[in-house]
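Review session, final week

We close the course with one last complete record, chosen because it touches almost every idea we covered. It is Ribulose bisphosphate carboxylase/oxygenase activase, chloroplastic, a protein from Vicia faba with 413 residues. Go through it on your own first, then we will talk.
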Amino acid sequence: MAKLLFLPLCLPTPNLSFKLKLKLKPQQFCVRCCDPNDEATNKRLSKQSSWETKDSEGRDYLYRLGKEADNMNIAVGQRAGIIDHLFVGHFLGKDSDIVFDYRQKVTRSFQYLQGDYYIAPLFMDKVACHIVKNYISHTLTAKVPLILGIWGGKGQGKTFQTELIFRAMGLEPVIMSAGELESENAGEPGRLIRERYRTASRVVQNQGKMSCLMINDIDAGLGRFGFTQMTVNNQIVVGTLMNLCDNPNRVSVGQDWRESDVTNRIPIIVTGNDLSTIYAPLIRDGRMDKFYWQPNREDILNIVQRMYEKDGISRDEVEKIVNTFPNQALDFYGALRSRTYDKSILKWIDDIGGAENFASNFLKRKKDKNLPVFIPPEQTTEALLESGYSLLKEQELIMETKLSKEYMKNIED
């Protein structure tokens, strides 16, 4: 098919006998046909360029990349055979950059975890063993479950302990939450899981670092509680996870299959409070290895001691606090320490000018105006115990009052 080529054409100014002169620009454009086999028309960008390299079906790299993308106009932003620097970089936004999706930093590096924390040996053994088993599964003659389900009581440090292990092992995981397991678009959460899984695989392949996929509070997104509704996305997410367990090296995000598209096996770790609410075939032993985390007294004492170590609280004082508030989750002792800051923060607010003037003095202050120095409170056993009794009182008040019964008379016990 002939191509259209625009060439400049000079036209002579016509001699007009009437007074009105017609003014024409010295150059106008006309259209002529050109031979598609013309050497000038089919000039390559570079002899070493791979952009125009054709595959076995005669299609170049950009065509294949656009076909694999979910939206050719947004995610790719290029057309086959056309390379324009206007569509790359900051001129029209990074959404037009064909490699933008691969530049995004979606992994977690845990730089915020500064300090020395205690990792329970039993927890470390279970998580590390699961990760290593999946990385060397091709050398084992045994069936290795892809998913590790860590479950247990609320506030026992399941996620935090896992992140500490990731930092200790040098992993860069891809982390999801239960809120991402539902969407107004059918199929979107399942696709997101597959994309995150493939992203973790690219971390291993491109960066030479170990990675994994972690889903926090999975029972909150997939669990069945009472008469909660089962949605299409719930079914697709469960089916996606089951498919990953059964075939972890072939993961599609909707593009055409290629024989060379083999994904590295990536271990998956999920946390939850009650795995019995999840679809039973997903949590069967061949797909998911389960680990019940309930820290014993020694684990609690060691974790709390590391928590209060910078405050100068001794081991005996930590034991006194734990004995005073038994049967509490680990996050209780963290909230207890946070409550001790309340008086110091209120004093700091008064020093600024009070709560009425806080916004203007804090957010709209002049550059040369310094705020009063915040002095953190001195942590003592008495102050920690006082905060603990206050938290305990709030817990009991919530359980005893139950205002929902007052507002909804037909509610069952």
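Two points worth writing down before the exam:
The first strand starts at residue 3 and ends at 9.
The radius of gyration is 32 Å.
Good luck, everyone.
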